[in-house]
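hey so u asked for the seq, here:
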Amino acid sequence: MALAVRHQSTYKQPATGVNPAYDEALEVIRAYSEQKAHEATLAHTELQKAQDAGADSSTLRALKKAWFDLRVESRINDGEVLWNARNGRFDLTEPVYEHLKQNEWQGRPLEILMQRLLQMFVLPDMLDPRFVGTPESQLNLQLARGVVEPGSVVDPSSAKERPGIELMTFHDEPRLHTIVMVDLDEPCEAEQTFREQFHWIVSNVSASKMQNTADLDKGTELLAYVPPHPAHGTPMHRYVVA
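ran it, structure tokens below
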């Protein structure tokens, strides 16, 4: 299991005492951050009191969100934090990095995923669009050549070995997931059409925000990995990993 841990930052803060306007801006940011950090401390104390008093789940969720948002606000303008995020250095024990990582996922990667699901007719051929919401977790397929972008053309020879799965969720507690790989274009001669064919099923795969690689060996493999093997002469096949 790979954990999302804090990387050693190599950020170097620009020199002060050169530009008065810059120095003043830093002072404004510092004062704002300190104020929000103080408010976050008060919010955390209130959350702890509510937990000790046995408050209901909706109250606790609201208080936790208030604390989380204040923690984010206290560091969102920190130059080092923003530099680390731009360079892929996320310490997901810190709310601000969790916030930035989730925003990163909900930007271009999620947009590309939803485009490919529609353009390649995964919706509705595999899933009914009426019952599909916005994905809450980021799943990356890792082959020997690297991470596969949704909709990419992959030669079957490069997928002979079981792929690795990067599963980024944004839940504090571990949750169990089921990973499946399906060929949507398996020819069915009897009906002169195409059908779905499962190539891989692993259940009980645990993941949380502190894990960036799914530990498949600790899951329950219901169907061993079957490499893609499209029949000669058939059109290009769509393989879905979800």
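The two ends are 19 Å apart (CA to CA). The mean pLDDT is 89.
lmk if thats what u needed
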